[in-house]
Amino acid sequence: MTPCGACKYQRRRCGSDCLLAPYFPAESIQRFAVVHHVFGGGNVSNILKSTSPESRKWVARALAYQAEARVRDPVHGCVGLIWEQEASLGILKEKLQKAKRELAQYVGPYVMQKMIACFSDPLANMVDLQAPLSATVDDFDLSSWDPFPAWESPSSSRCQPPQADRKGKSVAPPS
């Protein structure tokens, strides 16, 4: 039996009862390396043990995403990504308002009000945050979500991840 990515990284035997095997398969050593670097292997195991079995997939993915964000941006982590998304959302909202104002000049306010009422139902796109997680998300969504997009180019404003930790283990993909 081939060891899982976590056991390969830690150079230990991988038994059939390995807790990390379903979440860090053999081909994802790099994912576990980043998670191990940020959280530590024991902490990851303890977190997964204390989580219900049906939630462990999401917890493993969330840990991987947070670790990846922390390696990419050691200061802000996930919060930096949220700030960037909120800033780009604000810019897009401003552009939309400007476009609506320009369109209103040509079609008139009555036609514009009809168009806005027709195409923008604010309640249609809202998510019920009070609903239980199992009712809003299924395994199909989980399998299609990848928390590891391609690494950014060196010309971007974000920090590049370190190439190795202080023990000499590689924690980031080569550039």
TrEMBL record:
Residues 2-103 form the LOB domain. Pfam families: LOB (PF03195). InterPro entries: LOB. Residues 151-175 are annotated as: Disordered. PANTHER family: LOB DOMAIN-CONTAINING PROTEIN 32-RELATED (PTHR31301:SF68), LOB DOMAIN-CONTAINING PROTEIN 4-RELATED (PTHR31301). Belongs to the LOB domain-containing protein family. This is Lateral organ boundary.
